[in-house]
Amino acid sequence: MQPVLQLTNVSVSFETPYGEVEAVRDVSWSLNPGEVLAIVGESGCGKTVMVQSIMKLLPKNSKLKQGEIVVDGQDITHYKERKMRKLRANAFSMVFQDPMSSLNPTIPIGKQMVEAIKKHHKISTDEAKKRAKKLMRMVEIDDVEERFHLQPHFFSGGMRQRCVLAMALASEPKVIFADEPTTALDVTVQAKILKLIRELKEKTGVSFEFISHD
What we know:
By secondary structure, this protein is an alpha/beta fold.
């Protein structure tokens, strides 16, 4: 089986006024289709930097010192922004620790999901609404017809994270990076979100890279 994402001997550093800071050192791993890979480490050890280096979202003072990044057998190590923009849309999605960082507090959840779907698929608004509601049901949001028209502040933290997961699935990515997606939730809700991630993996075949300090 060909890995959907593979890192080989990747090292990333930052140029600072105090000299070079090594954030990621000689990291190698592979992620297969439909697999969950957990990256666990203390805060500040470089987990998020590693993911941002894959998506090429690091600041200008960063440098990929060595290594190779391969997506679906294609070497993207030296991809420029134009190629990466297309790749990010088709291959990667991201789920963050705080769902409100991914949601506009003033716009109804349904409208935000429709916009995300239409950004990646050339379909009508009505068809996008159908897909959005289907995704909301897939992540086990109840009363979809009513909640589709509500702003994020009407949702609990766990429900907001479910909405973010639904939006991450909207582009039909190969890999979803889940960057500490349960940290801001209480223990009971954490367990439900972890169970949901497992179920989504089984239903869609998407691969997850799960980042945590816990």
